[in-house]
Amino acid sequence: MTIDCLSNIETLKSLLPDFKDEFKVFIKIVNRLENDNLSEEELDDILADLSGSTAHLHFHSKSILDEVERIQDE
What we know:
Layout: H1 3-33, H2 40-73
C-alpha cells in the first residue's frame, strides 16, 4: 500500500464519524415523522429538519464516495 493510499484511508476514516452522527439524527427525524398525530406546525418543523439532515448526509456521502474512489484508483 502506498503512502498516498494510507493517507486516503485515514481521510476516509476521519469522514465517517460525522456521517454516522448525522445518520443517527436522520433516523430520529424519520421516527418523529412516523407519528400519526402531528400538528401542521410539527410536520413543518420535521420536514425542515429532514431537509437539512438529508442535505448534510448528501454532502458527507459525496465526500466519502470521492475518497473511496481515490483509494480504489490507486
